[in-house]
TrEMBL record:
GO terms for molecular function: carbohydrate derivative binding; glutamine-fructose-6-phosphate transaminase (isomerizing) activity. It comes from Halothiobacillus diazotrophicus. This is Glutamine--fructose-6-phosphate aminotransferase [isomerizing]. One of its GO terms (biological process) is amino sugar biosynthetic process. The active site is at K366 (for fru-6p isomerization activity). The chain holds residues 243 to 613 of 613 of the full protein.
């Protein structure tokens, strides 16, 4: 009943609003005096991390998108080769897993059948490969079967569409980046401290991102009658575009696709006309100018644009261009977490306006325990 939902209309909205707290809880006890505590991953973590030469992340759904973000971070900041794959593909294609790999399984529930099957496959073929679970369910099969564990402290997530689990997975992956960099000596103490200070600011930034709710509702009103939507992002915002599209399609049933903005000319541009809304994520970074030219390409073909922007980009709304300034204080780690929040709210409001069953979308389950 409504008491369980904390006065919110849906669990999804409650869980979106719980993100500042969930992120703070996930950081709690894992950092001390500005530095990460590698033992947070388990007593043997330091020894096991020391020999890791590559990371293989395996997950499904929204958890997979969190893994995709982490790949950008690990390779860019640590220079650590990182691959990410959906569990159902990884499981069945005979992947090459070298002994110096750390297998990272990401799962909110810890019971997703394909993710568990992928873990068991690696276990049977490569018993020496260490497995780290990043999971939100302490009693789960995934946690029991892994060598190392970092729990996301999101609290129970009821809504089928995952929100706070995703944000806390990203924070956990940032902690893994710090621990890896610290153990392997690939991160200077100064950069580690800077990243930790950035992480500690995320709960307040997430709280601020939630204040755009009424502006996002106004954007949702413009999307509610559309049949399709295209989400574009570059770099670390590409997985956020995928996640924004997934949220919209799963709860509003509007067909939505996420694309790397640079791929427009290789197909999706053919779909653009005045009936195809385009949602872009525009942080202030060295890819902004490229993104702006992608936006000009779709605008020239009549698309209505919805831009979630850093305030510093100086992008301004005009006819058929709706700019929502989201934040101005984010860095490489916090940006995907913060920019994702308004996309969650956008999907939520479109779904409510359409009158769908927001917390229990048709044909979907919270935890997919059969293949
Ligand atoms: C289902 C849920 C998604 C979730 C995915 C993976 O599809 O509806 O919200 O992201 O499973 O679940 P997991 O528990 O492994 O993160």
């Amino acid at each position: 009943d409504s008491a369980d939902r904390g006065g919110f209309k849906h669990f999804m909205l409650k869980e979106i609003h719980e993100q500042p707290r969930a992120i703070a809880d996930t950081l709690e006890g894992r950092i001390s005096e500005g530095r990460v505590l590698p033992a947070a991953f388990g007593v043997t973590a330091e020894a096991r991390f020391a020999d890791v030469a590559r990371i293989q992340i395996v997950a499904c759904g929204t958890s997979y998108h969190a893994g995709m973000v982490a790949r950008y971070w690990f390779e860019d900041i640590l220079g650590l080769p990182t691959s990410v794959e959906v569990s159902s593909e990884f499981h069945y294609r005979n992947p090459v897993v070298s002994r110096d790999t750390l297998l990272v399984m990401l799962s909110q529930s810890g019971e997703t059948a394909d993710t568990l099957a992928a873990l068991r496959m690696v276990r049977s073929r490569h018993p020496d490969v260490p497995v780290l679970a990043i999971c939100n369910a302490p009693e789960s099969s995934l946690v029991r079967e892994s060598d190392l564990v970092l729990m996301t402290h999101a609290g129970p997530e009821i809504s089928v569409a995952s929100t706070k689990a995703f944000s806390t997975q990203l924070v956990s992956l940032a902690l893994l980046l710090l621990a890896m960099g610290r153990v392997q000596g690939t991160l200077s103490e100064e950069i580690e401290r800077r990243i930790v200070a950035g992480l500690e600011k995320i709960p307040a930034l997430a709280q601020a991102a939630l204040t755009h709710d009424s502006a996002i509702l106004a954007l949702a009103e413009r999307l509610v009658d559309k049949q399709h939507a295209l989400f574009l992002g570059r770099g670390v915002m590409f997985p956020i575009a995928l996640e924004g599209a997934l949220k919209l399609k799963e709860i509003s049933y509007i067909h939505a696709e996420g694309y790397p903005a640079g791929e427009l000319k290789h197909g999706p541009l053919a779909l653009i006309d005045e009936n195809m809304p385009v949602i872009t994520i525009a942080p202030q970074n060295d890819l902004l100018e490229k993104l702006k030219s992608n936006m000009a390409e779709v605008a020239a073909r009549g698309a209505e644009l919805f831009v979630f922007a850093d305030e510093r980009t100086a992008l301004a709304s005009e006819e058929r261009l709706h700019v929502l300034p989201v934040t101005s204080h984010v860095g490489r780690i916090s940006a995907p977490i913060i920019f994702n929040i308004p996309l969650q709210l956008l999907a939520y409001h479109v779904a409510v306006l359409k009158g769908t069953d927001v917390d229990q979308p048709r044909n979907l389950a919270k935890s997919v325990t059969v293949e």
